[in-house]
């Protein structure tokens, strides 16, 4: 699938030609990346862990590189997860500094405190009007792969069957593999909710903003698996900073991050999601968009850069 090139303000995006041969594609990418690093004098380089971590580090041993761990391995197979996580721990030994998305993930990955720094997730503070909650307008933004979003459609159907007079809508923005999109489309067809649930496909950052303006309940649906427990969700913070209360699955990170007055936790099956919809509808008169945004203002990217990232520079150069 050919996606449009990204054009982000104050960000230089460098593209490498995509070769049809997979091996050559990897070799060209690594070669271009190393050439780019060597030809520019950087004060600090953030390297988000990828399959190329070892090669990139070995070719740039004397460069000021920080290994950034955004996630542990999320493979379905326990043995593969174990081996991949061991690999990340091993690679972390090659770096003087390691930034990690959460303290819980740093503990799980056994990254020593002396070399780790917590660089948390956040979201863009949305300057949009305060929301009304006359009726529920649900929004999910993100990948469909391995998220079981079809369960939320079955849960919504159960809610509508219980409350047929309640007005409700559900916008789903994002894409995924044929298998997961098939499950989602089947759920919409099975429940006859094509007039209620709208699947919008992949959207750019600018194209997503109108959905945050239009909708009033964020859906942060992550399967309750042990390997997702310590994975914070960008969509949690994006929704809250848009002034939307959320329905979030009951993972460790969601449980830790979600304040009681800002949403409801759900288990990862349809009836529990239905019950969460009932709770959030019963509480809708209590929600205040401006209050929600204020409570999570520290999680805006501006504040994270100022209070975390800028301090990280001093930490790295001590």
Computed Rg: 21 Å
End-to-end Cα distance, whole Å, is 45 Å
Classify the helix fraction into a percent range.
Answer: 40-55%
CATH superfamily of the largest domain: Glycogen Phosphorylase B
Label the structural class: alpha/beta
The 3D shape can be described as globular
CATH architecture of the largest domain: 3-Layer(aba) Sandwich
Average pLDDT, all residues: 88
CATH class of the largest domain: Alpha Beta
How would you name the oligomeric state of the polypeptide chains in this document?
A: single chain
| Number of structural units classed as domains | 2
Contiguous uncertain segments of 5+ residues: none
Could you name the CATH topology of the largest domain? Rossmann fold
Written as H for each helix and E for each strand, in order along the chain, the element string is HEHEHEHEEHEHEHEHEHEHHH
Q: Describe the biggest sheet? A: 6 strands, parallel
Number of DSSP-assigned strands:
10
| Strand content bin | 5-15%
Biggest sheet, strands in spatial order? 7-6-5-8-9-10
Number of helices: 12
What does this structure look like?
By secondary structure, the chain is of the alpha/beta class. The protein has two domains: 22-118, no CATH class; 136-298, 3-Layer(aba) Sandwich (Rossmann fold). Helices cover 42% and strands 14% of the residues. The protein contains twelve helices and ten strands. It has helices at 22-39, 53-59, 78-92, 103-108, 149-162, 178-190, 205-214, 234-240, 252-257, 270-282, 289-295, 301-316, and strands at residues 45-48, 65-69, 98-100, 116-118, 136-141, 168-173, 197-201, 217-220, 246-249, 263-266. The strands form two sheets. The chain has a six-stranded parallel β-sheet with strand order 7-6-5-8-9-10, with helices on both faces. The radius of gyration is 21 Å and the shape is globular. The model has no long low-confidence stretch (mean pLDDT 88).
